[in-house]
Backbone:
């Protein structure tokens, strides 16, 4: 009997001992995508996917990038007189720093700047890990092309850091993994532009002119970024060369401006590079432009006659940009005097550029194709503070098939967000031509853009669609303008065509006009928008955002703050 | 077959002896009252008896045997009996320190008097009749060195426990639970009334036998076993009414309008359909369609309610000859004080064992099956911030919500809870073990124990859509051709098996006594997670068991990148030797070697040694005869523990598929399925190793004045190296960099735990009283950081060499600018203005910037304490228990939203007292909607004293045993009334001084979303048949 139990005991111990082997402790992740079973193409897809600044962290800020949108509405439009912050009063302040962006009092601790920096680097990280994985694989057939695509995406991300921060820590696939967090940020612009251009130059050598999948980067996209990089460095000859490469591609101005701003897919041939959005793709609302989520007009929640229910009404066009649409007897902008008097929001008789009512909503004017009512006063949330204009660009038509619902997410659908449009490229070339002494050639390009606007169907009167909604007039510039006059025209045309698309602030900075223009703008507006009183733009500081305090702290002070912050 | 016959033979053989004698009489306490249920055993045999209700007994046995009289809590008495006696009167002396009581510690049992480590033995009787369904909330402040942070969520499963300060900021701060030998990090589902004993192993030497899991302390729980004697049936039931403990106050509608008006610079306030200026008559309706009446809603009141919780436990136990059985059934129910939340638990237990082979072999099992269902929901933050002008319901009967204007855009807080009401999380847990112990001879025992812990989790997440102001919001998606809803089906199965084999040896040679054991253990934990995201037509009731009937959006049965499907293995060998001489000198050493699959191959194994010694001075000649000192013992211990509690796959890099965040419409069609991507979800760290801690403990136990006064004091120093942290990383490390664990540095905790108790010697029917005071204090300090030579900052939470972990870091708010002169002379501070916060220029460089930040607070208390008082007379007993914390700073981040009307949500009452020229002495900054001074930056403005003193419980119990029990056929009947959280004294101005959050985001940071704590009143009844 005793023996039996001793035997059992021994067996039991023996069992323990025999399994006492190293393998027992080897537990590989199960049912998990790890480095061993990665589909490389899917890594590339996720790098593209990061263009919309939405990431997998589970944190609110990373799923809802509306306080640091990839469209730069918060970092360009509301900082440069194209738009007021909007929303429910100055205290309605996504990220805690939106109002301070508008009044140029942004702090290093602002969540907005941190979230932007964070999103861009998350994107760069995806690009770098994809390149590393692809390089390590010898039998991946699309190896060269995919790496080139990824490099263009990376150049785009570093470009965003360059525009917004004027500084970045450069990390690429050659940075040893354990040293990624030890690279300091640089303020050396030549070095930084050099890194951006190196990726683009490598890409144009490899990329095809067309890709089967329209959303992918091709050779023209790489050239477009090169042209833009040169534009920011004022290297005019290269701007012209690279712009010509892009202009030789399959892009062109579409004929109907209204649809360009309202109908998903319509702008495909005008967009050189755009963030591709989609609906009914299995995700909750679709992969939509959540960065611009807040920028839809408000309207009563209990009245289905309104096109968007309970929008947030951010990113509201300014009186200044509306005034810019006033024209003279020839249908040309009032380059010097446009802001001397205000166009009344209800004024439909003063002659204006027809693009005004395509891109900016005014009460009483037809809203896209909505037949229930024209725009109402109560589509604006805080009229005393932010006025009555609402953003009409990049708001999907209420009847568009790709719009998920009348309420949330409001005017978002599969309407892509253009990072580079052909009209932008044309104006780069025009600017380079004017700067290098060929004013007439530059003006010709401007006129080409104006001609499209002139020939596009105008916004019609809500009650009588045979009539125009307002007194539209647009003419062409004559030849023989002086260089400075031509530059004035160029700058005005960039606003008229591209306002509220995330360009104006960076234009002002590269033109060296940010402090003077913005200070004058804020002084002017402060009589209408009380919160601007006392606001001031500090030259040589606020052209760029502060390096986020969290990043400085997380690197134990390795990252250096821009002086002045 | 032959063995089986032997077995039966042993079972039923009755040894007949030639010379039998009989003793009968009574057993009484020293004060003369009868002691029912005391046991009488004949040493070396299985013969025994139990005293009856009047303390009487009769026992027949072989002449010359040793009779042993014992009763828990009383000194055991033994005598050699040679002749029959019918008038025996045994007096058992109460043993206040219960030193001979045997308690379960790591892998073995020890007499309390032999303990050389720092082990707190919980007075389980004190926990009887506790109304809370969760055992752990009752431990609060009763054990010095044990810190509890309950969250108020029904069921209490979210309570955080830490032993002896913080060991690790991530990796969970919770201790290891060993429930009948089952090692787990979660006591969820354990029924308090089934617990026989709880021991808290606080020092490294006691806990070290659990090796890698022990660094955060170990709580050993033993569940009830039947005791010899008549079958015992118990029925305990109680009902509590719970109400919210803290005061949640925000502005009413009129106050909100007035505050907004001033904050906007005396500019009219848009609010729904109208624009407010002071003096203007409010309209009747908020909206143009006359649906929403202008209201003055107290949103907090709409989501909070008084709740009722009940608890009923039934127990049956019987032990006879060589077998014993304990069974328990329990039901607990807690309707949370937030609407539509609840917790329900049912559990069943069966503990049984049988002794075979002449008592040499014990075979037994402990088994619990518990099922709990929870609806968790919390819209506190929404309710605090929702605009009071909005009515709860519209005129059309739909939920009231904002209609634009200045009303902001939060959903109706009650509606959020309502649509969540069916989101029941159901867990079924089966845990326990089967074991055998075999006494090879009287010195050697071999044993084997197979432990299991099986958790099945089921969650059909079915949040609904709801109608707010006539619009359907929430789970409703319009795809153009169809309207759908989307649901999650989540099933998780986690199975842990632990096989422990041991051999133990004990021997006594004269005054030398030796106990030793060695063992081997294997742990296998497998997890399996199946997750589906499905899409079904809107309004259709979904059959979650047949998800294939619906469109499957995400199928994670083939993909699990979240670590929840992670498996792990552990293999360990351990041994311990204890020696004592004459119950006076003690020495003990142990070692454990663990290997864990959670760590990379280079750092897979670690060994944890311990040693301890004790000296019972009271057994020395010079004290033995002392009338003052009944027990005096010095203890010293040292040992190493590990912490391996990180995500199972932390060493691996893992990628993830996400419909929202890694897919992309490469084709550009804009509609329908798009290209799938994978993005990094976790960056592995193959060099990750154990967090190790070494702890030295010195202790003193004393019992004085006939054991009326008892003192236990322990001082310790705990040094943790290779602190496992998961901290804010620079963004260059990517979105997965946030889950990067690394061994960050070293830390030490120095502390003291003390208990002083006084207990009057009970005399029948006279006044009796006692008190227990617990005190504990620790100092935490980071001694070294590895990867960063500077500091680690996570929001406001700072970790730097020489400072306590989780210290607060920021600017010093140096009051408010009260005159233009003060503004003018102050350093360059963008946004400085009258009524704004002045920040101190610490480095005096004339600029307020990042270099002016410093340590601004310490969340660790100077000390914490508990004071228990009990008094009784006749069959009435009164218990009062106070506890508190002193000297801990708290970061009141609630004020970021409530003191500053930057955002148009509702504001706190402080805004009514904001600085203005007419309220020049205010400490609250001037009202402004623009945060031009960055006043939400981390600063001393938000630091408050978190000290508190509260009456934790007050209870009165009345023993009706004599009065009623005979009539009702009961052996015992007891009723009690109890109040919890009756009052608190604190200077903390926020909503809840008891902040959960011993987490990587910081310690003691009070936010808006805390589930409120309750004040509760309980009536209960305990019956015994």
Residues:
């Amino acid at each position: 009997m005793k023996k039996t139990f001793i035997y059992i005991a021994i067996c039991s111990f023996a069992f323990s001992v025999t399994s006492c082997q190293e393998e027992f402790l080897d537990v590989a992740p199960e049912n998990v995508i790890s480095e061993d079973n990665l589909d490389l193409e899917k890594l590339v897809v996720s790098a593209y996917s990061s263009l919309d600044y939405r990431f997998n962290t589970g944190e609110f800020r990373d799923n809802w990038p509306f306080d640091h949108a990839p469209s730069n509405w918060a970092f360009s439009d509301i900082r440069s007189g194209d738009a007021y912050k909007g929303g429910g009063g100055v205290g309605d302040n996504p990220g805690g720093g939106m109002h301070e962006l508008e009044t140029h009092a942004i702090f290093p601790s602002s969540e907005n700047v941190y979230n932007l920096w964070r999103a861009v680097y998350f994107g760069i990280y995806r690009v770098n890990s994809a390149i590393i994985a692809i390089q390590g694989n010898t039998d991946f057939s699309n190896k060269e092309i995919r790496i080139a695509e990824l490099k263009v995406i990376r150049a785009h991300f570093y470009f965003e850091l360059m525009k917004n921060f004027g500084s970045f820590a450069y990390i690429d696939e050659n940075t040893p993994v354990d040293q990624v967090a030890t690279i300091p940020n640089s303020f050396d612009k030549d070095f930084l532009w050099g890194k951006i251009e190196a990726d683009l130059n490598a890409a144009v050598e490899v990329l095809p002119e067309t890709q089967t999948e329209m959303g992918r980067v091709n050779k023209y996209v790489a050239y477009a970024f090169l042209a833009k990089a040169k534009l920011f460095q004022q290297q005019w000859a290269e701007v012209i060369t690279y712009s010509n490469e892009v202009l030789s591609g399959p892009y062109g101005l579409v004929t109907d401006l209204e649809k360009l701003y309202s109908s998903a897919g319509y702008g495909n041939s005008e967009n050189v590079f755009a963030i591709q959005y989609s609906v009914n793709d299995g995700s909750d609302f679709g992969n939509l432009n959540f960065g611009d989520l807040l920028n839809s007009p408000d309207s009563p929640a209990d009245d289905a006659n309104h096109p968007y229910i309970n929008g947030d009404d951010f990113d509201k066009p300014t009186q200044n940009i509306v005034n810019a649409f006033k024209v003279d007897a020839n249908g040309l902008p009032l380059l010097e005097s446009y802001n001397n008097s205000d166009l009344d929001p209800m004024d439909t008789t003063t002659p204006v550029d027809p693009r005004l009512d395509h891109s900016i909503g005014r009460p009483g004017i037809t809203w896209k194709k909505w037949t229930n009512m024209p725009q109402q006063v109560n589509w604006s949330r805080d009229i005393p503070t932010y006025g009555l204009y609402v953003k009409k660009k990049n708001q999907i038509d209420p009847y568009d098939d790709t719009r998920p619902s009348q309420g949330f997410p409001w005017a978002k659908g599969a309407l892509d967000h253009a990072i580079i449009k052909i009209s932008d490229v044309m104006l780069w070339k025009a600017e380079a031509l004017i700067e290098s002494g060929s004013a007439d050639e530059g003006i010709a390009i401007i006129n080409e853009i104006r001609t499209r606007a002139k020939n596009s169907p105008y916004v019609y009167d809500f009650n009588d669609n045979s009539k125009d909604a307002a007194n539209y007039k647009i003419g062409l510039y004559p030849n023989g303008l002086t260089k400075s006059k031509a530059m004035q025209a160029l700058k005005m045309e960039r606003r008229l065509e591209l306002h509220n698309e995330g360009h104006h602030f960076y234009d002002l900075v590269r033109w060296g006009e940010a402090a003077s223009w913005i200070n004058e703008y804020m002084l002017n507006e402060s009589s209408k928008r009380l919160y601007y009183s006392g606001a001031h733009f500090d030259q040589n500081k606020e052209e760029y955002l502060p390096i986020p305090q969290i990043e400085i702290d997380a690197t134990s002070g390795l990252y250096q703050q821009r002086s002045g912050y | 077959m032959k063995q089986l016959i032997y077995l039966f033979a042993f079972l039923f053989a009755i040894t007949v002896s030639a010379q039998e004698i009989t003793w009968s009489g009574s057993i009484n306490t020293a004060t003369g009252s009868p002691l029912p249920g005391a046991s009488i055993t004949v040493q070396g045999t299985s013969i025994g008896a139990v005293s009856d209700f009047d303390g009487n007994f009769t026992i027949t046995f072989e002449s010359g045997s040793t009779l042993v009289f014992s009763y828990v809590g009383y000194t055991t008495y033994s005598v050699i009996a040679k002749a029959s006696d019918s008038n025996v009167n045994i007096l058992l002396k109460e043993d206040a320190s219960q030193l001979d009581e045997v308690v379960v510690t790591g892998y073995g049992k020890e007499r309390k008097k032999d303990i050389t480590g720092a082990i707190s033995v919980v007075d389980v009787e004190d926990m009887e009749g506790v109304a809370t369904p969760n055992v752990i909330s009752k431990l609060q402040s009763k054990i010095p060195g044990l810190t509890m942070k309950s969250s108020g969520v029904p069921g209490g499963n979210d309570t955080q426990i830490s032993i002896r300060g913080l060991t690790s900021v991530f990796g969970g701060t919770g201790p290891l639970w060993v429930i009948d030998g089952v090692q787990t990090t979660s006591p969820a589902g354990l029924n308090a009334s089934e617990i026989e004993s709880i021991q808290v192993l606080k020092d490294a030497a006691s806990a070290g036998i659990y090796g890698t899991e022990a660094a955060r302390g170990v709580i050993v729980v033993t569940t009830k076993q039947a005791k010899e004697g008549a079958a015992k049936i118990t029925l305990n039931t109680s009902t509590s009414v719970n109400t919210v403990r803290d005061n949640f106050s925000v502005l009413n509608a009129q106050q909100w309008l007035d505050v907004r008006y001033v904050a906007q610079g005396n500019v009219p306030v848009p609010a729904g359909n109208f624009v407010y200026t002071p003096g203007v008559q409010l309209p009747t309706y908020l909206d143009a369609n006359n649906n929403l009446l202008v209201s003055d809603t107290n949103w907090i009141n709409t989501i909070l309610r008084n709740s009722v919780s009940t608890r009923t436990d039934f127990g049956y136990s019987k032990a006879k000859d060589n077998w014993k059985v304990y069974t328990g059934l329990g039901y607990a129910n807690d309707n949370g004080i937030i609407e539509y939340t609840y917790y329900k638990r049912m559990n069943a237990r069966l503990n049984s064992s049988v002794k075979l082979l002449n008592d040499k072999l014990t075979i037994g099992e402990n088994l619990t099956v518990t099922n709990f269902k929870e609806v968790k929901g919390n819209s506190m933050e929404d309710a605090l911030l929702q605009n009071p002008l909005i009515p709860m319901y519209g005129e059309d009967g739909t939920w009231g919500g904002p209609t634009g204007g200045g009303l902001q855009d939060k959903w109706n807080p009650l509606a959020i809870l309502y649509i969540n009401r069916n989101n029941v999380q159901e867990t079924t847990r089966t845990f326990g073990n089967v074991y055998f112990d075999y006494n090879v001879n009287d010195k050697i025992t071999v044993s084997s124990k197979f432990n299991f812990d099986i958790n099945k989790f089921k969650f059909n997440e079915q949040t609904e859509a709801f109608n707010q102001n006539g619009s359907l919001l929430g789970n409703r998606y319009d795809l153009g051709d169809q309207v759908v809803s989307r649901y999650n089906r989540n099933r998780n199965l986690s199975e842990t098996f632990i096989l422990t084999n041991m051999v133990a040896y004990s021997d006594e040679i004269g005054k030398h006594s030796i106990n030793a054991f060695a063992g081997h253990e294997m742990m296998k934990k497998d997890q399996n997670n199946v997750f589906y995201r499905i899409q079904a037509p809107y309004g259709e009731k979904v059959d979650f068991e047949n998800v294939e009937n619906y469109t499957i959006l995400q199928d994670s049965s083939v993909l699990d990148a979240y670590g929840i499907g992670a498996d792990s293995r552990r293999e360990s060998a351990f041994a311990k030797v204890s020696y004592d001489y004459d119950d006076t000198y003690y020495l003990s050493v142990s070692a454990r070697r663990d290997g864990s699959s959670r760590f990379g191959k280079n750092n897979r194994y670690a060994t944890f040694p311990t040693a301890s010694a004790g000296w019972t001075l009271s057994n020395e000649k010079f004290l033995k005869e002392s009338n003052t000192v009944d027990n005096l013992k010095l203890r010293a211990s040292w040992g190493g523990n590990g912490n391996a509690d990180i995500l199972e796959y932390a060493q691996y890099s893992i990628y993830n598929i996400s419909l929202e965040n890694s897919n992309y419409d490469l084709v550009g069609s804009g509609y329908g399925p798009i290209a799938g991507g994978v993005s990094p979800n976790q960056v592995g760290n193959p060099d990750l190793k154990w967090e190790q801690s070494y702890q030295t403990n010195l202790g003193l136990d004393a019992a004085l004045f006939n054991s009326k006064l008892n003192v236990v004091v322990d001082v310790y120093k705990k040094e943790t190296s290779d602190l496992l942290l998961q901290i804010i990383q620079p963004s260059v490390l990517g979105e997965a960099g946030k889950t990067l664990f690394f061994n960050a540095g070293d830390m030490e905790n120095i502390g003291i735990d003390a208990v002083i108790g006084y207990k009057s010697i009970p005399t029948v029917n006279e006044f009796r009283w006692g008190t227990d005071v617990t005190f504990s204090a620790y100092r935490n300090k980071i001694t070294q950081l590895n990867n960063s030579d500077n500091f680690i900052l996570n929001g406001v939470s700072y970790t730097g060499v020489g400072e306590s972990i989780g210290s607060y870091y920021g600017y010093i708010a140096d009051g408010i600018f009260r005159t233009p002169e003060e503004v003018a002379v102050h350093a360059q501070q963008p946004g400085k203005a009258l009524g704004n916060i002045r920040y101190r220029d610490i480095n005096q460089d004339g600029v307020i910037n990042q270099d002016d930040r410093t340590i601004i607070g310490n969340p660790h208390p100077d000390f914490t304490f508990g004071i228990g008082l009990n008094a009784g007379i006749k069959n009435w007993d009164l218990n009062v228990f106070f506890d508190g914390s002193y000297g801990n700073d708290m970061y009141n981040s609630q004020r970021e939203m409530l003191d500053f009307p930057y955002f148009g949500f509702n504001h706190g009452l402080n805004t009514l007292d904001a600085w203005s020229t007419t309220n020049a002495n205010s400490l609250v900054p001037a009202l402004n909607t623009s945060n031009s001074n960055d006043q939400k930056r981390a600063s001393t403005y938000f630091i408050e004293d978190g000290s508190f003193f509260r009456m934790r419980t007050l209870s009165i119990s009345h023993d009706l045993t004599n009065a009623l029990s005979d009539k009702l056929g009961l052996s015992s009947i007891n009723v009690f009334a109890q109040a919890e959280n009756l009052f608190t004294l604190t200077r903390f101005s926020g909503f809840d001084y008891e902040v959960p959050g011993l987490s990587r985001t910081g310690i003691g940071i009070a936010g808006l979303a805390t589930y409120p704590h309750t004040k509760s009143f309980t009536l209960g009844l305990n019956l015994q048949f």
Summary: The first strand of chain A starts at residue 33 and ends at 34.
